[in-house]
Amino acid sequence: MNTNQVSYKYQKIRDIQIFYREAGNPLNETIILLHGFPTSSHMYRRVLDELSDNYHLIAPDYPGFGESDFPSADEFEYSFDTIAKLIDELLESLKITSYTLMIQDYGAPIGYRIATAHPERVRALIVQNGNAYEEGLSAGFDATKKLWQDRTPENEQPIYAMFSLEGIKWQYTHGAKNPEHINPDNWNLDYLKISRPGNHQAQLNLIYDYRNNVKLYPTWQKYLRDNQPPLLVTWGKNDPFFPEAGAKAYLNDVKQVDYHIYDTGHFALEEEGHNIIANIRDFMQKLKNN
């Protein structure tokens, strides 16, 4: 069996089929790749392909995203607490109890819940536009903050723009040095999934629940200060949601940070994947040597 080849698997967790991509030899160091909104484990396809020679990689899709089950928002609680517990249980079921977490966007609140529940299991953190600081929330969150204060149809309406094909494409191309280098399959696949009947409601529930992530920022910052996990920051500085201030804030809490800022947008892997993968390889090698 070629363990470098990516496998596409499902695991049933609490009656929900969780899809995940796996590559690399399980005897090697494990990296858990946690995706953002509105995408899926698809965003890590290049990382899986290129790092599987030396590392064991797992990239799950959350419920309602990618190839995982999409339970109705009437029957399933779309919250970061619930999703983090499901992904934690997925790792338990796969008997993975030591790992590095790579977190981007929604992957940050999910990853930090797992890390604070099991600090002894987390070998290191790789943060790519994954925010844990209020200074890392840009004016791009203004409409969302109104929704947090009062969830009315009027305040929900501006959020729907994020679910349109143009809105999703914008999240990939805004701030990119050369948008022509970004594969349109990204936004077309995401749009297909987010346009399923009922998915807008699930996504609105998560966006509304994001306010609870902000309340947990002090807890996650304390986790960083107390545990001092080895930390790699790779950040697209033109992110319309999470500006570079969110990256710099990590330097206040973690003493040793491998810090890289790139002139690109929210999905930095799309344009700077070659460099970020090289950063990860160097970082993981240093971790192994220490």
Automatic annotation (TrEMBL):
Regions crossing the membrane: none
**Which InterPro entries does its entry note?**
AB_hydrolase_1, AB_hydrolase_fold, Epox_hydrolase-like, Haloalkane_dehalogenase
Which Gene3D superfamilies does this UniProt record tie to the protein? alpha/beta hydrolase
One Pfam short name: Abhydrolase_1
What are the UniProt keywords, alphabetically?
A: Hydrolase
Tell me which domain of life the UniProt entry assigns to the organism this sequence originates from. Answer: Bacteria
Where does the record place the AB hydrolase-1 domain? 30-272
The answer to whether UniProt assigns keyword Hydrolase to this entry is yes
UniProt keyword annotation of Transmembrane helix present: no
Which Gene Ontology MF annotations are present?
epoxide hydrolase activity
Q: Indicate what this protein is called per its UniProt record.
A: Hydrolase
